[in-house]
Specification:
Strand order of the largest sheet: 1-2
Structural class: mainly alpha
Order of helices and strands: HEEHHHHHHHHHHHHEEHH
Helix content: over 70%
Largest sheet: 2 strands, antiparallel
Distance between the termini: 50 Å
Radius of gyration: 24 Å
Number of strands: 4
Shape: elongated
Oligomer: single chain
Length: 296
């Protein structure tokens, strides 16, 4: 262990040398490298074993701080060689990125997480794989479109892993597959997957999941001209008390479920020639979007 006085003296010398910058924050003084290249040079100057030990110590300290972002934890655990510990944090980082529509960032996090699946506890590996698929497919569709080369294999993997599963992870992987087939116009397959998802989302506590798949099923019905069936799904979404009262719980894949339902109701009303009703639903959707402050 190094004495506090020695640490402070060394930090002061590094500041004087122009290597570190010192800044006062709400919780006291903080230090950072003046330039990223200086940080990389310092990092690479350490022997690998020493680097791993330091990253492991940092991870052990900051994991207890709730303000630590999951991507920071994934980074330090992975640099320490603790890939099984890094994996769930990388998945959480991807989920946070997808929620704010940072799709390229989400893809990078998921790719890292999937590269570490071999290190996961076998009992948790399938769930983590399914969760990663549920995050990766929507991000790929948003950035590359329905022809994204990586997606078909992910859809096949989801079907295999979720064949007998009833978990939230299975739901999200199958819902992502439903989204893919809907985007490709393969509506019969999308509807089949959507109905499986609806069964998984039956428990009362899965209202967010239930609402998100109902919107997708409503979109399929809308494309097929089954407006009455679409309305049934959308009415169920708008009736979900928890979804309506807790905006944060209604975001799926970076999109607000309730706003999406209101927009689709407006489109159906417009197609039926009910312009006043359509305007009412569209205004409600716009008001909610502005209230959320979410660009999607």
């Amino acid at each position: 262990e190094i004495a506090t006085a020695d640490v402070e003296r060394t930090l002061a010398q590094l500041v004087d040398a122009g290597i570190l910058l010192k800044k006062r924050g709400r919780d006291g003084w903080s230090y950072r490298y003046r330039h990223a290249l200086l940080r990389e040079a310092a990092h690479e100057s350490l022997l690998e074993a020493a680097r791993r030990r330091l990253h492991a110590r940092v991870a052990a300290i900051i994991v207890a701080d709730r303000s630590t972002s999951p991507d920071q934890l994934a980074y330090h655990y992975s640099q320490a060689g603790a890939f099984a510990d890094a994996l769930p944090f990388a998945v959480s980082a991807a989920e946070a990125a997808l929620t704010r529509s940072a799709n390229i960032e989400a893809i990078a996090h998921v790719h890292r997480a999937r590269s570490w699946l071999g290190s996961a506890d076998p009992a948790q590996r399938s769930a983590l794989a399914l969760k990663s698929i549920g995050l990766l497919i929507p991000a790929l569709l948003a950035t590359e479109g329905y022809a994204a080369a990586e997606v078909p294999a992910l859809v096949d993997e989801a079907r295999t892993l979720a064949s007998d599963a009833n978990s939230i992870e299975a739901f999200h992987a199958l819902r992502a597959s439903c989204l893919y087939h809907h985007a490709r116009g393969e509506l019969s397959v999308a509807i089949e997957l959507g109905r499986k998802c609806l069964v998984i989302a039956t428990p009362p506590e899965r209202s967010k999941e239930r609402a998100s798949i109902r919107v997708l099923l409503a979109q399929c019905a809308f494309v097929e001209g089954r407006f009455d069936d679409a309305d049934v799904h959308l009415d169920e979404v708008l009736a979900e008390e928890r979804i309506g009262s807790d905006p944060a719980s209604a975001v799926a894949d970076g999109h607000d479920v309730v706003s999406g339902a209101l927009v689709l109701r407006a489109m159906i009303a417009f197609m039926r020639g009910r312009s006043t009703v359509a305007s009412t639903f569209a205004t409600r959707a716009l008001d909610r979007a502005q209230e959320l402050g979410h660009h999607n």
